[in-house]
Amino acid sequence: MEHKNTWETYSAKQLKEVDAFAREYMDFLDNGKTERECIDQIVNAVEAAGYQELEQVVKGGKKLKTGDKVYSVWMNKSIAMFQIGRKKMTEGLNILGAHIDSPRLDVKQNPLYEDGGFAYLDTHYYGGVKKYQWVTLPLAIHGVVVKKDGTTVEINVGDNEDDPVFFVSDLLIHLAQEQMEKKANKVIEGEALDIIVGNKPLVIDNKKTGQKQAQDEKDAVKKGILDILKNAYDMEEEDFISAELEVVPAGKAREAGFDRSMILSYGQDDRVCAFSSLKAMLEVDRVDRTACCILVDKEEIGSVGATGMQSKFFENAVAEVMNLTGEYSELNVRRCLAHSCMLSSDVSSAFDPTYAASFDKKNVAYLGCGMVFNKFTGSRGKSGSNDANAEYLGHIRAIFEKEKVNFQTAELGKVDLGGGGTIAYILALYGMNVIDSGVAVLNMHAPWEAVSKADVYETKRGYVAFLKHAEL
Predict the structure, then answer these.
(1) CA dihedral defined by 385, 389, 395, 398, rounded to 10 degrees?
(2) Residue 5: CB partners within 8 Å, gap ≥ 6?
(3) Exposed, middle or buried, 275 (CB in 10 Å: 0-12/13-18/19+)?
(4) Which of 110, 186, 204, 380 fits 182 for a cystine, CB–CB 3.0-4.6 Å?
(5) Residue spans per domain, the chain
């Protein structure tokens, strides 16, 4: 089967729509480099579209009817959105599910130290990364510090033009003979991914003498950083204990290529599918089956924790919504979830001709060839995979052909080379039909990833078609 290049199918009007959608998506990436920042943007968007906070609806004792829209946020890192359809929820939902966490470096709880005249922040990498890709890059720090009195201080340093940036140092090539002989996973060790945050000592009062001056001179660079943090954020060193600070590549999303056909940015796995899912939810109106979108945290480390897909957050939200529509019972919740259809909105690996030997050319996604379906993911012998039913994939094919959505199918590399996972298998535990679908990504999990503008736009179109027509 040949892959159809999506760019060749677009009219002049659609080409303008593709570029407009890409600009909106790039703005989302620039303002959403952490889960919390993504949630802030998403909440602003859904409230502007008429969504109400589920918890407030519950407190107000209101009932939900066809056309009503609600959302529920959990711990500022995950969100579930619902648009009530004409049919009863026991007949199932049409669900889009993506994740908004991305690989990065996390600052540890006791991170600040001085060595060799530099002040460092100690980090622990998050998700699957090639550690050597994170050295000598300009980095930014995004996150929150929660003080003992409950005050939350937001930190966002490194992405504005007049901000300082941070970096992880690397050994100069002139001295790197031994380093160059190491395996790629050992060239940079995890404990070496500490970011340099300063080099200037706190100014010493020249009038001080003796022991007092000696005490002041010890760790003077670290003290200088603490002085800056105190003045800028009223933050003490102990406040790192209750901080969530993420170190991410500094810089904005950029158009790539002379033809501006691609987007190069941090965090596109999986914010590209999260954004496309969000926009699809906002575009559809008056659906037959209740439409749902869940955007969750922690997928990159196994979907664990209270904000990951393995938590009961989503199931609890469904129960609350069904209670407000007058359908709630434990059995009805089970029926609702079992009868649902889901697109696990996650990215797939794009074919890279430079590393062609890692891919099966017949079963790989190509940039610019439309939305991608992975019937299964997992690794090697499909281990850890959701494997979608043929009947469900046939149903999806019919919908996409009717709506003229360009799509392709793929696997994550050659059979014995590895693979990956998504949240699909977790939702499949309810017995619902689930398949992975999303955007092909080049440089996946690197600090800078690349996608095709056409694929992003086409994926949004596919998600809209699914929310309108899926029912199996």
Answers:
(1) 70
(2) 368, 369
(3) buried
(4) 186
(5) 6-102+266-469, 104-249
> How is residue 339 annotated by DSSP?
T
The class of domain 6-102+266-469 in CATH terms is alpha beta
Regarding the domain with residue range 104-249, which homologous superfamily does it belong to in the CATH classification? Aminopeptidase i, Domain 2 (2.30.250.10)
Query: Fold match between 6-102+266-469 and 104-249?
Result: no
Q: 255 and 265 in contact (C-beta within 8 Å)?
A: no
Average per-residue pLDDT for the chain: 94
**Residue 39's beta-bridge partner residues?**
none
CA distances from 413 to 356, 376, 382 (A): 10, 12, 12
Query: Quick check: helix, strand or coil at residue 156?
Result: strand
Select the more confidently predicted residue: 209 or 81: 81
Q: Which of 455, 461, 460 is nearest to 408 (CA)?
A: 455
Q: Model pTM?
A: 0.95
Pairing of strands 262-265, 254-256: antiparallel
The 10s digit of each residue's pLDDT in 189-233 is 999 999 999 999 997 665 555 555 545 678 999 999 999 999 999
